[in-house]
Every structure is written in structure tokens, then in C-alpha cells.
Amino acid sequence: MGAFSPGFHRRRQEDETGVRLPPGQYLTRDFPVLSAGPTPPIERDSWSLTLEAGPGERRTWTWQEFMGLPQEEPTVDIHCVTRWSKLHTTWRGVSVDTLLDGLDTGAAEYAVAYCYGGYTTNVPLEDITGGKAWIAHTFDGYPLAPEHGGPARLLVPHLYFWKSAKWIQGLRLLVHDEPGFWETAGYHNYGDPWREQRYSWD
Ligand SMILES: Nc1nc2c(c(=O)[nH]1)N[C@H]1C(S)=C(S)[C@@H](COP(=O)(O)O)O[C@H]1N2
Ligand SMILES: [Mo]
Predict the structure, then answer these.
(1) 116/154 Cα distance (integer angstroms)
(2) Which of 34, 39, 154 to mutate to test the pocket of ligand 1 (most atoms within 8 A of CB)?
(3) How far apart are CA 169 and CA 105, in angstroms?
(4) What SS3 state is found at 161?
(5) According to a count of CB atoms within 10 Å of the terminal CB, is the N or C end of the chain lower?
(6) Residue span of the structural domain in which 105 resides
(7) Atom 15 (ligand 1): residue with closest C-alpha?
(8) 42 assigned to some structural domain
(9) 6 band by pLDDT with thresholds 50, 70 and 90
(10) Is the peptide bond before 151 cis (omega within 30 degrees of 0)?
């Protein structure tokens, strides 16, 4: 008999409520910090969020305006490419749909999230619309900690967590795809954890 029974394997792939994990992931209860650079200091008073949808289609929200938008409280599973997953995480924030509401997105099919500190990441527009992505400012009932992207981060839980840009400053909608920081450094352009799209060759 092998050292690992099928039962053991199954317990590693599911949490106590039977939720399955994407291939190659393990469960963690803590919240690791993964940043390509230092945490940028950001005051809420000088923070703003910008949506660039094309010439003449540009919206900016101050912190107060942003917090005045309709808020949602998603509970989602998150999956980091370094193989940890965290299930049933609770957030509060504004749906990207709310930011785009009434805006003419024209021929745009892609988006780049750009951040205080310079990080960028690209996502197809359809992956951040239709209730699939938020600009989150609260985690587990508390204001999002600076090392986790506070004041606010993008949350795109159905893709690997590097797509969830911390310290988000804006979203730029594009007609052509424009790979971001990790995507130009060998990570997969799309990053679906269920298809294990970790690196560009996956
Ligand atoms: N601005 C910015 N956002 C970022 C990163 C970064 O370095 N800078 N790292 C990404 C990566 S690789 C991961 S796994 C997650 C980590 O988020 P966490 O530190 O809150 O766990 O943030 C993503 N968002
Ligand atoms: Mo990551």
C-alpha cells in the first residue's frame, strides 16, 4: 500500500465543506503577502481611482466619491500562482460593473489595471464585468491592510491572484491586449487556476 491513501489526497484537495481546490493548490488559513516591490504609502485624502475608456471617456473618483458608490460584499475563493489557496474570503467593495455603468466602452475588449508603485496587470474586459470583479477596500471586516493593497485593490478571484492588482490607481480599457508586469515576465497571459495556466508555456 502506498504512503498516501486516496482519502488523504482528497482531504488535501477539499476544505471541510467539500469545496474543491484547483489542481496543484494547497489550502492556507493565513494570508501571505506577495509584492514585487515595497508597499507604497497612500493617503486616502490624495487617493483617487480613474477609469480610462477612450478619448473623452474618463472618470475619476475621490476616496469619498468611491465610498459613496453602491457597495457589494463578495465571499470568494482566491488562488495564488505560488500554490496557496484561501477559501471563503470576505470583502467589501465596488463592482467594476458599477464603475462602467452607462459608459460607452466602444471597441474595447481588454483592460489594464495600473497601480500606485507602477505594477500593471492585464485582463480581458469580459473577465472584470458581469459581476466577476471588484475594487475592494475591506477584507474580513477591516480596512484592507497596506501590504495587501490598501486603500483599495482589484479583486478578480476567478483568475490567479496576481491579476488582483494591489494599490490600484486606475483601469485603462484597450482595443488591443497589453501584457502587464508578470505577464511580460513569463506568467500566463490569462491565468485560469482551474486550467493551471501558471506560466506562458502552460
Ligand atoms: N500592485 C501590486 N499588485 C499585486 C502584486 C504586486 O507586486 N504589486 N503582486 C500580485 C501577486 S503576484 C499576488 S500573488 C497578489 C498577492 O496579494 P497579497 O499580498 O494580498 O496576498 O497580489 C498581486 N497584486
Ligand atoms: Mo503571486
Answers:
(1) 12
(2) 34
(3) 19
(4) helix
(5) N
(6) 26-30+47-195
(7) 162
(8) no
(9) very low
(10) yes
